[in-house]
Amino acid sequence: MRLLRAIGRGTIAIFAVIGRISVFAGTSLYHCVRPPFFPRLILRQMIEIGFYSLPVVGLTAIFTGMVLALQSFSGFGFAGEATIANVVVWGITRELGPVLAGLMVAGRIGAAMAAEIGTMRVTEQIDALTTLSTNPFKYLVAPRLIAAVAMLPLLVLVADVIGVLGGFIVSVYDFGFNPTTYLKSTWASLDAAGFISGLVKAAVFGFLIALMGTYHGYHSKGGAQGVGQATTNAVVSSSILLLLFNFIITALFFAT
After folding, report:
1. Residue 131 half-sphere exposure, CB side, CA atoms within 13 Å?
2. Could you tell me the CA-to-CA distances from 79 to 53, 84, 93, 193, 209 in Å, in that order?
3. Cβ pair 100, 158 in contact under 8 A
4. In this predicted structure, what is the pLDDT of residue 162?
5. Labelling 103: which of 205, 221, 232, 240 has CA 20 to 30 A away?
6. How far is Cα 66 from Cα 76, in angstroms, rounded to an integer?
């Protein structure tokens, strides 16, 4: 019976967490579409999420494209421009671009959101907002969700371009491929379904990253230790959900 009780407690705890996250997500979405809005806060979060994440996303993408081209050439033994270009474009636009950009943003932005909102929670600043008749969801959560959903597709678009550029650099200057032929093969290999699926993934990833960051920060407790735990939970949970929804969206787009 002890084993059954432990399994039951664990199952109930899992469903309780899912329920709290679902209620938090529904409330946040409601405040994202219902006025009043805070354009200045949304713009500030767009700059923080989008512009300041460009260096880490760009470096990740260009080295990923380089390694993908190098590994493809080594794995195939010998491959022409069309084969390498096809592998790089498909790998970057469909999977590696959205996933790696999402993970980098989750590590940077998700942690920052959880730490900032968690600090406001433990120092009772969120309670002060409520006392001043300012809805915390409207002021703290909604701008971050809107900004993340808007900026992640743009970051992934930049990552796609830079990642393909990395493959181009290795293919032309290391393998000696013809640049014109490689670029024509790259353009021919680009398909609309793969490109659109990557942008859809990016929007979903942005929502998940902002949701987990704000959720764990909003419910943090226990002082500095609680804020640190909330930051860790935000990064881990957003990364796991990102990979889960990556599989789900890929299955929806490409399942036969």
Report:
1. 5
2. 35, 7, 20, 25, 38
3. no
4. 93
5. 221
6. 16
Residue type, 144: R
Q: How many residues does the structure list for the chain? A: 256
| Cα–Cα distance measured from residue 59 to residue 65, given in angstroms and rounded to the nearest whole number | 10
- Select from 213, 204, 215 the least CA-distant residue to 244: 204
Whole-angstrom distance, CA of residue 128 vs CA of residue 224 = 19
The closest of 17, 46, 42 to 138, measured between CA atoms, is: 42
Is the Cα torsion angle 27, 112, 100, 182 positive or negative in sign? positive
Map out the domains of the chain as residue ranges: 38-254
- The type of residue at 230 is A
> Global pTM?
0.89
Return the C-alpha torsion angle 165, 166, 171, 172, nearest 10. Answer: 60
Can you read off the two tokens belonging to residue 163?
A: 């990642």
Q: Buried b / exposed e across 209-230, counting CB within 10 Å, b at 16+?
A: bbbbbbbbbbbbeeeeebbebb
Above 70 in pLDDT, residue 78?
no
Which one, of 165, 152, 167, lies nearest residue 211 by Cα? 152
Tell the residue number behind the tokens 């670029």, with chain if given: 183
